[in-house]
Specification:
2 copies of one chain form a homodimer.
Chain A lengths: L1 E2 L12 H6 E8 L2 E9 L7 E11 L1 H6 L8 E2 L3 E8 L9 E4 L2 E2 L5 H4 L10 E3 L3 E2 L6 E5 L3 E3 L6 H4 L2 H13 L7 E5 L3 H11 L4 E6 L2 H9 L3 E4 L8 E6 L5 H8 L1 E9 L7 E3 L2 H5 L3 E4 L5 H9 L9 E6 L3 H9 L5 E5 L1
Parallel strand pairs in A: 1-20, 9-10, 13-14, 13-16, 14-15, 16-17, 17-19, 20-21
Antiparallel strand pairs in A: 2-3, 2-5, 4-6, 4-11, 4-21, 6-7, 7-12, 8-9
Helix pairs in contact in A: 5-6, 5-10
Chain lengths: 339, 339
Amino acid sequence: MILIPKTGFPITAFGNDKKNKYMQALVYQNKRLIFKDDWPKPQPVAGEALVRVLMAGICNTDLEITRGYLNFAGVLGHEFVGVVEESSNPSLLSKRVVGEINCACGECSCCQVGLGRHCPQRKVLGIAGKDGAFAEYLTVPEQNLHLVADNVANQAAVFCEPLAAAWEILEQTPVTPQDDVLVLGDGKLGMLIAQVLKTTGCRLLAVGKHKEKLALFESWGIQTGLLTDLGMRLFDIVVDATGSPQGLRTAIEHTRPRGRIILKTTVAEKQPFSMAAVVINELTIIGSRCGLFPPALEALSGRKVSIESLISAIYPLAKGLEAFQKAMQPGVLKVLLQT
Amino acid sequence: MILIPKTGFPITAFGNDKKNKYMQALVYQNKRLIFKDDWPKPQPVAGEALVRVLMAGICNTDLEITRGYLNFAGVLGHEFVGVVEESSNPSLLSKRVVGEINCACGECSCCQVGLGRHCPQRKVLGIAGKDGAFAEYLTVPEQNLHLVADNVANQAAVFCEPLAAAWEILEQTPVTPQDDVLVLGDGKLGMLIAQVLKTTGCRLLAVGKHKEKLALFESWGIQTGLLTDLGMRLFDIVVDATGSPQGLRTAIEHTRPRGRIILKTTVAEKQPFSMAAVVINELTIIGSRCGLFPPALEALSGRKVSIESLISAIYPLAKGLEAFQKAMQPGVLKVLLQT
């Protein structure tokens, strides 16, 4: 892991008043990613907390947004750990927290069955309609916040959101020790997913294209292979975490009749595609996105997953543009921003 | 329904011996559909019965095969009712039967869990590796045959296969009176599926493009609408029975978050496609193909579904080429072949 020191980074020379009104932020605006040191500091509304960001993670979705995905404009970032500076809830004040990213209306039919993360009116931190965490501060609905146990370092806590997305699979479909499971994709999400699936005792194989990444899986006791070595092998469950539109096609080829595909890949790109094999083999494709934070926090606290080796570099927020460049390089895993 | 009379049809002037060796058949060969009156009569092998075909139905899959789908060559036809003329099983002899179309190996892991219709070594009547039912005779594994109750006419029994495919949905996923269900597609399969789903008491809407076809749904007490009137309405379950690659896209647009799509459409055609909404809304797509015959036979016998109005025309086998022309015309529903 490379730690980019703050040394040499110009301190913003604001007076106290200005300091209270403005902050540093990494903003996607007019189709460009820019670093601002005079972005308005957000004001929490009723039910919201003001969170001072300690650390935030750059996710592939952030990279996709800077390529035009989802048409978002504002402060990027949805993976973070921070400290609550303002809240009407005393049990949150001054506490270290992570936050679920979907800000739901609380009233619609989705919200009423506990699926606020599918609320059609929702805003999503740094993704849709609400500024995110690549800033000194962000506001978050208090109900989205979860306390972080003392034994979880910032560098681990910041993985809570993507780890919850990995855990979502187990909330959606049962995985048992009798299942042959294939994880496609040796990127960050594939690494988290494979570690989560390993906790079920299933017969697990992770495949990818990068031997040095697959070596990490092996270090966690997960069997690996190269995509090109799969042959005609079929699995009960195949997880597509490739981030490529080709991933689903590969998943379909390697799922046994009546088997399940967990689809994690979201890409804007459209590719010519036939679903005939899904019908003929009666496959089930389960789209899987954000997950609940408690199981992820518990896994981090209980050291059930290994996080450290996923961090490629830590940059100060003011070097966010460099951090994005780094995150886009092949072979780079998680790049973190420190505030 | 148009009944094309046999009058004027030239009787084949075979002697007795030749009559025993050859038969009439509708054959897809060298990329052409041809009528033969000297096709070799099939000989049952051990475990097979010889079935004299009484009536057979032309399915969209047959039409697709004549457009090159699945690369099949041989006698077409997989929807049939017939009489067993030869069998080592005395309980089948001279009985009226229908037959499941997948001829499985009986030994592989699929077969051992009762999923012979997914056996990777399977042949499929009139679709893959085995001659079908658009002929005077076909051979069928005895274990595939089911007796037809006396109160089920040939014209109803011949619908057993597509009706079983409709019933398959209920074998794969629960449908309850609390579910809002949308059936996309007002063709034959959509009609059978809607009738099957109606038996669950779910809140059902069938939509299509053809007012005259939708009127049939209404006559069965099923609420209908035009595709163009759907607006932004969302459903718990959406069945794609459109037969068009556009169908899945429409289904995705009208399925609520965490809802289910039942995919019945098999088309060879590939279209540019993004699955992002499946992930974002965590939809489940369930591919659905052939079903078990017993529930379909019971429904036919118990008059739970209306079949008569689905028959557009009945042709003698020798006019099979005309029958195919008819089946390809817009607005035409089921075309049957009588032997």
